[in-house]
Structure formats: structure tokens, C-alpha cells
Write a structure and sequence with these properties.
five-stranded mixed beta sheet, binds magnesium ion, binds zinc ion
């Protein structure tokens, strides 16, 4: 609490231009690594902690500063002011740290408007800010690399679904043929990032549709990447073999989202939920682990004189929360923690590196009382996991909503609670107390 108050005081001083000067610029980090656990609220982190034993230390615990961030987005409207939406999506929240501005759900680094399918104003992104400073830039995710969280850094789009040329019927005025920036996959290539690793090959290859209009008319997005000098790779072996001279590099390690590292049953409703452990070896060997993608990205990016900016997303914490799959969710959180460990190791030798770890929004999973009598089953879907301590940890999912595709269990909804934020390195103190996702745009720049 005391630290939070001090941070608030120093924030106020900065706001009024006091105490800003040489000391401030000396605090600005050369390298900035931003970790986003999609849908990774305090409950998801705690479940990953307890599954591995209550006394097990996480890499999260080595981050020296902790705070909270609010994540609310906007509802469509006539403007210039917009009403708040308390349970945001990953497009709106990503746009907040990527641009420093609030927007509506579904939107990729564009401003709000009267409806989701009415394009807003394109905003400058944090990745563009760092590129203009001569820093190398990288973008790593376990999702399709055209998914909302990685997309916000290097593309602008009214609807997050417009990921490939074939999807542009949803965003007809934003195609290259119409003078727009083209689909998200086209923009991810045109943006010339130094390192891009993730899934989503189908958004880039022939099956994703040909590019219509622009300088790559009739070509696939992969062909466009090759024309623009980007090395394409597809497997863990390709990744292992990369050298810095291979940059810029686009690694597409799965057709869609990368396979989760762990697996287990989906949660079920009512009594009779069996207790079990998780299968912790689910990702095919051809797909690299998040830890390895992070290590390689840092290795490649860190050779530059002016430092680098890297975003690393653990995407399927969210996706497995939606699916009410506790093992999938926890495995992705554990993998994310290991990736943080890689960055912390780099930072030991490169202390001019700011590491920030946060989530884009909270999610549904909760740890509830173990019920051995069968009389207190949670109202939602649940699973019983046997932890390293040999105890049963019951995880419940109870935010599914409709209307939507009928599934068992139905897709769970995001929640609106503040998310935790952790940091270590120059400028880490700026995350203390409670800030908003939009503040992260400045915090990443040492402002
Ligand atoms: Mg995401
Ligand atoms: Zn989600």
C-alpha cells in the first residue's frame, strides 16, 4: 500500500512536469520485453502455482514490482465520449497498451465508432514507436500470429476476424484493392518486424486466399513475405537453426493456434467429477515451446545497438479458459512462467532491460472448495485436479453465456476484474498501485 501511494505521488509529479530530467531518461530501458498472458487473471496464476505445490516458486515471484490495471473498453456510439464496457475482449484491451487509447471490442488499433463494422481512425502503435527509435522488434504468440493480441502491434483493422485475404468480406473497405492496409496477415508482413513467431500458417498460404490489389496482386501472403525479404520457417528444427543473418524471419509453426502444452478433460457439470492429474506432454515435437520461441527471439533481437522491443503472448490460457479445460489452461500458464524465466535470465546479464508481465483481461476460472461429500458441487462446470501436494484442487467455470454456438460446455466468458501487472528493470516502479491498460503505452517507453 505504502509503495502504491509513493508511486501515485511520483506519478503526479511527472504529470506536472516536476522532477523530470536526466534522472528520468537514465531510467529508460534499452530493451523492453512485454509478456501478455491472455485471460490470465489472479485466479489462473494461482491455479498454476498450486498445481505445482503451494510452496513452489514461480518466475512471476522474481519480478520485483506488482500492481493492478483496469481493463474496461468502450461501447460503440456516436462519440465523442463513449460508455464503458466492463468485460472487454482481447482486441480492445490490446489496442490500449499498443496505442495508449481506449476503443471498442473487436477493434485492432483503431479508434471507436458507431458500430463494430464501421472502421475507426487508425492509431500509431507502440511497436511503430520503437521501430522509429531504431530498435529491433519482435512478436511471439502461441495463437495464430494474426490473432488479436499480436495483431494490435502491427496492424489496424475494424474487426479482429479480418485475419487473411479470404476473411476480408467482413471488412470490405479495408482491402488493398480499396486502398486500405489489407488483411491482418498482409499487414503483419508489410510491417517488416524482425522476428515473428507463432501459429496461423493458414492465414498466410494459398488456402487463405490470394491477395487482391496492391503490389502482391494474385500472390499469397507467404509469397509477399518472401518478396519482402523475410525468411519463412515452419518447424522447431528450423527455429533451432536460425542465425541473426536470417532476420527478418516469419515462423509459422501451426496451421491455426499452436497445440496446448498440456491436456486433460473438459470440466463437467454437477457431481461425479473424477480426480486426475494432467497430461503434460501434449505439444507435437515439431512445434516449439513458448520458452524456446522466447529464447530464440531474444537471442536474435539482442544483437542490435539500440536495443529491442519484444512482445510474448501466452494466448491459450484464455482459449482453454473459454473451453473450461483446467489442464490446458494451467499448462499454458506454466509454459508462460517458463518463458518469463528466460527473460529474467537475459536480464541478469543485461540489466538495462525492462520486463513487464500482465494479462489483457480477467477470466472465468475459480478455485473452489474441494467437495468430498457430493453435497456442495459448484453450479458451473468443474474439474478436480490432483496437485503435487497430493490434494484435490477443484476448478470451476461459471460464466458461460448465450447466445452462441451450442457446445458442452459452452464457451465461458471473460470477466471484468482488474488484472495483475508485474515488472522488473528500469522504470518498473511505474506499474505500482492501480493504473489502466492505456497507461502501459507510456510505461513501456519509460514515461
Ligand atoms: Mg490473445
Ligand atoms: Zn477470450
Amino acid at each position: 500500500m505504502r509503495n502504491g501511494l509513493l508511486a501515485a505521488a511520483s506519478g503526479a509529479a511527472l504529470l506536472f512536469g516536476l522532477g523530470v530530467g536526466a534522472a528520468q531518461s537514465a531510467e529508460t530501458a534499452k530493451n523492453v520485453i512485454l509478456f501478455i498472458g491472455d485471460g490470465m487473471g489472479v485466479s489462473e496464476v494461482t491455479a498454476a502455482r498450486y498445481y505445482q505445490g503451494v510452496k513452489n516458486k514461480l518466475n512471476f515471484d522474481k519480478l520485483t514490482h506488482t500492481g493492478f490495471q483496469t481493463t474496461w473498453s468502450l461501447k460503440p456510439g456516436d462519440g465523442p465520449t463513449y460508455l464503458p464496457d466492463y468485460a472487454p475482449d482481447s482486441a480492445a484491451t490490446g489496442t490500449m497498451w499498443a496505442t495508449g487509447k481506449k476503443t471498442i471490442d473487436e477493434r485492432i488499433s483503431q479508434g471507436p465508432s458507431t458500430a463494430e463494422n464501421v472502421p475507426g481512425k487508425n492509431y500509431k502503435t507502440i511497436l511503430e514507436v520503437f521501430q522509429a527509435k531504431g530498435k529491433r522488434v519482435g512478436n511471439v504468440s502461441t495463437a495464430e500470429i494474426t490473432d488479436a493480441t499480436p495483431a494490435v502491434l502491427a496492424s489496424k483493422m475494424s474487426l479482429r476476424g479480418c485475419q487473411a485475404p479470404a476473411n476480408m468480406t467482413l471488412c470490405p473497405t479495408e482491402t488493398k484493392a480499396k486502398g486500405g492496409l489489407g488483411s491482418i496477415s498482409e499487414q503483419m508482413v508489410d510491417h517488416q518486424m524482425d522476428v515473428v513467431f507463432g501459429g496461423g500458417k493458414a492465414r498466410f498460404d494459398a488456402t487463405g486466399g490470394k491477395i487482391a490489389g496492391g503490389s502482391d496482386d494474385g500472390k499469397t501472403v507467404e509469397e509477399s513475405a518472401t518478396r519482402q525479404g523475410q525468411k519463412l520457417i515452419y518447424t522447431k528444427n528450423d527455429l533451432d537453426a536460425l542465425k541473426s543473418s536470417d532476420m527478418p524471419v516469419l515462423g509459422l509453426f501451426a496451421s491455426g493456434n499452436m497445440t496446448t502444452e498440456w491436456t486433460g478433460p473438459q470440466a463437467i457439470q454437477g457431481a461425479g467429477v473424477e480426480k486426475h492429474k494432467c497430461d503434460t506432454d501434449n505439444r507435437p515435437k515439431v512445434q516449439p515451446k513458448l520458452e524456446l520461441m522466447t529464447e530464440k527471439a531474444i537471442e536474435l533481437l539482442s544483437g542490435g545497438k539500440r536495443g529491442f522491443f519484444l512482445q510474448v503472448e501466452g494466448a491459450s490460457i484464455d482459449k482453454q479458459d473459454h473451453a473450461a479445460n483446467a489442464c490446458g489452461q494451467i499448462g499454458e500458464t506454466v509454459a508462460f512462467d517458463k518463458a518469463i524465466g528466460v527473460a529474467l535470465k537475459f536480464q541478469e546479464e543485461n540489466p538495462d532491460t525492462l520486463i513487464i508481465v500482465t494479462a489483457d483481461h480477467s477470466h472465468t476460472s475459480q478455485i473452489v472448495a474441494e467437495d468430498s461429500t457430493g453435497t456442495g458441487d459448484p453450479t458451473g462446470y468443474s474439474d478436480n485436479l490432483i496437485t503435487k501436494d497430493g490434494q484435490v484442487m477443484r476448478i470451476t467455470y461459471g460464466t458461460a453465456g448465450g447466445p452462441g454456438p451450442v457446445a458442452t460446455p459452452p464457451s465461458q466468458q471473460h470477466t471484468g476484474a482488474v488484472v495483475p501487472i508485474w515488472a522488473k528493470g528500469p522504470g518498473a516502479e511505474k506499474i505500482l498501485g492501480t493504473t489502466d491498460h492505456t497507461d502501459l503505452f507510456d510505461i513501456l517507453q519509460g514515461k
